[in-house]
């Protein structure tokens, strides 16, 4: 079972980087093999939606993190082994008309695979790994593959012994052709191990916490000290939701940190569903069917849609998922900002109240329309929090620390005046007039 999400959410949370801008994937990716990188990308693309599987994966990584286990193989061995195996596919495409690999490359590939098989055997038989209960099924799967009688000659080979041409030819036929599927199963297990150890290292170095997944549909979210993992000097916040308070109406002035806070919470929820450690001090959450965020919604020029209509379509999509009785976590940052204040006010109130009735889902709605709070206070399911601004003379200062209530902070014109924009425009016009008189 996998978590429902979409491209908009992937973009909002910057799961994958673009050009020179790294994403969340890059933060967790310290893998040693290309195969592990592919596995990790798949995990980030398809988070889990099963309580048992999430906790199982989390416990595996937590155990490795506690033991400080390092990846027990050389990356160069995998490069040789992968090149060697890929060549078999290329050879098939060419109809075996010509050799894709030289004799030396075949020898290197065979030797690399044999070394890998011996090294993984030592790893899974080491006492500390045998005693690790959370990784038992994976360890036993690897041991079962290595115990297959077809690999007896491989496992009897002395490591680093020089193989004869006849032995290389025989092993080439065995490993690259006859038992290719079993070799691929073994490598898949090693790639997954590489991912676990990579993420465990991230958890240790960054002091990330391993969340606890709770039963689906209970709308419980408790996070202590959550922050965005990409910030150099983050301000952490405590945050909680429940069936009794399944909506948070978030207010705050521009630059107060609303979008960053929304990304911090939704990133933690998304990553927790992968079974990975998160940027927080403590976390437990009800497993969800899906996560949908709307933070940076673009105009849909492809269908000729304005920003407002794109927002309407987004709300419609979320409503359809909710009507299917799914447990969702939903964020709308500045809902209906693409229309006039009156319509935005009315629509925000009506949609938020309708969301409040969906007790098995959780919502955060941020807005500048603080007046909407008066009507929303009538619903006991809606909580109110804000990110404050403190004025130091005429200079706004931001704490980024979440507080209860609604704020009417509006400092847009103060910032514009502080930047001297109006003065620049006024003086620029005078200079233009002076230049015209001189001409």
UniProtKB/TrEMBL annotation:
<dbReference type="GO" id="GO:0140664">
    <property type="term" value="F:ATP-dependent DNA damage sensor activity"/>
</dbReference>
<keyword id="KW-0067">ATP-binding</keyword>
<keyword id="KW-0547">Nucleotide-binding</keyword>
<protein>
    <submittedName>
        <fullName>MutS-like protein</fullName>
    </submittedName>
</protein>
<dbReference type="InterPro" id="IPR027417">
    <property type="entry name" value="P-loop_NTPase"/>
</dbReference>
<dbReference type="InterPro" id="IPR000432">
    <property type="entry name" value="DNA_mismatch_repair_MutS_C"/>
</dbReference>
<dbReference type="GO" id="GO:0030983">
    <property type="term" value="F:mismatched DNA binding"/>
</dbReference>
<dbReference type="GO" id="GO:0006298">
    <property type="term" value="P:mismatch repair"/>
</dbReference>
<feature type="domain" description="DNA mismatch repair proteins mutS family">
    <location>
        <begin position="245"/>
        <end position="433"/>
    </location>
</feature>
<dbReference type="Pfam" id="PF00488">
    <property type="entry name" value="MutS_V"/>
</dbReference>
<keyword id="KW-0238">DNA-binding</keyword>
<dbReference type="InterPro" id="IPR045076">
    <property type="entry name" value="MutS"/>
</dbReference>
<dbReference type="GO" id="GO:0005524">
    <property type="term" value="F:ATP binding"/>
</dbReference>
<dbReference type="InterPro" id="IPR036187">
    <property type="entry name" value="DNA_mismatch_repair_MutS_sf"/>
</dbReference>
């Amino acid at each position: 079972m996998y978590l429902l999400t979409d491209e908009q959410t992937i973009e909002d949370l910057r799961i994958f980087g673009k050009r020179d801008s790294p994403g969340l994937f890059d933060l967790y990716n310290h893998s040693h093999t290309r195969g592990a990188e592919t596995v990790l990308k798949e995990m980030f693309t398809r988070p889990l939606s099963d309580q048992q599987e999430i906790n199982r994966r989390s416990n595996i990584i937590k155990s490795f993190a506690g033991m400080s286990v390092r990846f027990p193989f050389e990356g160069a061995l995998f490069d040789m082994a992968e090149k060697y195996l890929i060549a078999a596919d290329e050879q098939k495409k060419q109809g075996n008309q010509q050799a894709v690999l030289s004799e030396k490359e075949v020898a290197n590939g065979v030797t690399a695979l044999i070394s890998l098989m011996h090294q993984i055997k030592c790893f899974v038989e080491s006492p500390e790994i045998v005693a690790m209960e959370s990784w038992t099924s994976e360890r036993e799967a690897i041991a079962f593959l290595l115990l297959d009688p077809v690999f007896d000659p491989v496992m009897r080979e002395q490591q680093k012994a020089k193989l004869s041409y006849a032995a290389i030819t025989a092993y080439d036929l065995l490993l690259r052709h006859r038992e290719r599927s079993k070799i691929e199963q073994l490598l898949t297990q090693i790639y997954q191990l590489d991912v676990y150890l990579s993420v465990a290292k991230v958890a240790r170095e960054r002091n990330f916490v391993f969340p606890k997944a709770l039963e689906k549909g209970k709308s419980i979210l408790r996070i202590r000290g959550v922050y965005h993992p990409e910030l150099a000097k983050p301000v952490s916040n405590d945050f909680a939701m429940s069936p009794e308070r399944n909506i948070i109406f978030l207010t705050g002035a521009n630059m107060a940190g609303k979008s960053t806070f929304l990304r911090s919470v939704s990133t933690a929820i998304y990553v927790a569903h992968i079974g990975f450690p998160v940027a927080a001090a403590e976390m437990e959450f009800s497993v969800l069917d899906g996560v949908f965020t709307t933070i940076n919604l673009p105009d849909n020029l492809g269908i000729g849609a304005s920003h407002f209509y794109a927002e309407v379509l987004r709300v419609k999509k979320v409503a359809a998922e909710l009507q299917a009785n799914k447990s969702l976590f939903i964020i709308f940052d500045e809902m209906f900002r693409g229309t006039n204040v009156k319509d935005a006010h009315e629509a925000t109130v009506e949609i938020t109240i309708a969301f409040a009735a969906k007790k098995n889902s959780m919502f955060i709605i941020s807005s500048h329309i603080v007046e909407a709070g008066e009507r929303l206070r009538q619903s006991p399911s809606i909580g109110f929090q804000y990110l404050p601004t403190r004025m130091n003379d005429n200079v706004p200062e931001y704490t980024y620390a979440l507080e209860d209530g609604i704020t009417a902070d509006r400092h847009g014109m103060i910032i514009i005046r502080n930047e001297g924009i109006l003065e620049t425009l006024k003086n620029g016009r005078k200079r233009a007039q002076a230049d015209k008189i001189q001409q």
